[in-house]
């Protein structure tokens, strides 16, 4: 059955004065039972715009229900001014006609009839209009844009000039009689004679709008209880209480019963193709962001929102036996309510800003994914079910590929009986327990005794899984749409916790209200590269894909992180593939050996950071047990970093950079990002070979490495990083010492003699240097304070150094 709005808090009315409008969305109509239902608007002066009108247009959409509507029922009446009345013209018991009347105020009315005995269609929407035109001296009646005025026509008839404070009634006479039986929507009164061609007389179109000639406009939508006089900002007096009270009509939302849905909607008619973007497939033309859209039951072919198509609409209904496809690369945005009675198949991006109404346990919503794409849904309505497909590559025994960090996008997902349940002996499913310590951080679903270690996937938690075969996992359940907060996570051992994206769309770490206290930047496991990477690192754009698990580290046991719904975004990331650039950043990638994995480390010069570990900026390196080669930077206290934010300096900055490889062979360090602003160059020094590579001029360094090599193989050299100020001395060569080495660094090619003197003036070392911008000189036998001098033609550079 269709889910209706079954409550009423009042009548949302819209008034216009001086060209200003306030209006709602055309998502409802009113259902009048023919017994005691009506709407009463107490005149507050706005109706005075109709007093004595010599030109006017009165229109409404009505749906008379056979057997409920009776002769002389009122559609609309302003007492002793004008009225629209139902009429059984052929006396067959079926009220299929109507007439319009104008009063002089005495109780006597002049009646204006239609031609024929059945101008209306029962059990269907009909547009009726009265247009009084003083310039051509006519008063005409219309149904669905057709002139149905009685043969011979009528001369124009001015409205009563002294209507005063007469109230306006919708659905009854005004004295407790003549109640209308059926539906009414979109009632509008204007003090101008419109052309019938300018009115929306077709059921295909948008809800009415106001202009300077509109006296009042009733959208008859649920959700509001007052009207605004746009000039004086005065609340109107409306009679409304609770649905079911005497004199209260019922709000009706969209219905998939044929013909009962809203009259003003663009309807899919499949005239040419399945293309949503082809206007010829729509009654009323191609929908826009203000259009209400209906895909009716019985459509011969279903609409398809193709790649690169951005479809928009206001309210949206998919009726029974219909499927709408949003393809990979296509997107749909619905600003109003969305009702899915049929099915919505999502391969691309769907945003539903209003209420989502569905039927069935899975909500008839299907979100698909594959190796190259992942369907994405952003909505706000709780309690909505869906089938969410997750693509998982099978585990490869030879390479060790096929582990996934997964998080459930549905609430409290039960593992037993689902296709996430791992088969003993060939599949794995673990959660991470930071407090377990030596007992084992990874807790297996199979507890070793034939039972299970845990039964459900906790919302917002991450899990490690692998499956023998590549497959699509279909997850059925209620989608998560609320913020999820974790507080006071344990800090007993390594302080890492495995959380996850609990939504059916991606998350952006740089957006929304994450409310993070003493929790690090998330790190994800990149399956392509076989390593962990901070999502703020070069190439990851702060994006956490849907259903992606991620690690965070806490500083102590007092901490908080909120995974917020307002950080949800659409993203094309599927277990990570992308690139990006960052300011004042150097990102190095290590690859090679016997596999295709890679690792990276990032250094960012940031004046708001410190030389230590800044949890809001930095990420420790997760070395783990994956076979990927590792590259990371090291602080003096031997902390390993995947991302290291440090303050800029006018002096030379040296950062130890370690690697770890798991097979002998050739490796390459590539510059993935280099946006460092500097007065000098950036160099990578290989302590094993003595080779110094200028990373400001080249993006690659290739070398041989063995599994037994010491990790502390490289040093990064930065000269006046980020260019905060130029070094103010007479040297054009930077001279400094580190680790029993003296370094000379120059923008220009050096050609001259190096002299090292002790503090007594004794020459202890000399060497000739040429054709080099960066030179490293080992001085293993020297300890203490020395004066270093480099002499070239017409240039001498001198620097005191300490060799330890």
Q: What are the main properties of this structure?
A:
804 residues, Jelly Rolls, mainly beta, 65 strands
Describe the structure.
With 804 residues, the chain is mainly β. The chain folds into 5 domains: 12-252, Sandwich (Jelly Rolls); 266-359, no CATH class; 393-468 and 480-580, no CATH class; 581-728, no CATH class; 733-803, Immunoglobulin-like (Sandwich), CATH 2.60.40. Helix content is 0%, strand content 41%. It has no helices and 65 strands. Strands 50, 51, 52, 53, 54, 55, 56, 57, 58, 59 and 60 form an 11-stranded mixed beta sheet that branches. Strands 1, 4, 6, 11, 12, 13, 14, 16, 17 and 18 form a 10-stranded antiparallel beta sheet that branches. A 6-stranded antiparallel beta sheet has the order 5-15-7-8-9-10, with no helix packed on it. The radius of gyration is 38 Å and the shape is elongated.
Set down the secondary structure blueprint:
Elements: E1 12-14, E2 16-17, E3 20-21, E4 29-33, E5 39-41, E6 56-64, E7 74-78, E8 82-87, E9 97-103, E10 109-113, E11 126-133, E12 138-143, E13 146-147, E14 154-155, E15 168-170, E16 181-190, E17 214-221, E18 250-252, E19 266-268, E20 282-283, E21 293-295, E22 304-305, E23 310-313, E24 316-318, E25 323-326, E26 331-334, E27 338-340, E28 343-346, E29 349-352, E30 356-358, E31 365-367, E32 376-378, E33 385-392, E34 404-406, E35 413-414, E36 428-432, E37 442-444, E38 456-457, E39 463-466, E40 471-478, E41 484-487, E42 496-500, E43 506-508, E44 523-526, E45 531-534, E46 543-544, E47 549-553, E48 560-563, E49 568-569, E50 585-592, E51 598-605, E52 619-620, E53 630-634, E54 640-646, E55 652-660, E56 665-674, E57 682-686, E58 692-694, E59 700-705, E60 714-719, E61 733-737, E62 741-758, E63 763-778, E64 784-792, E65 795-803
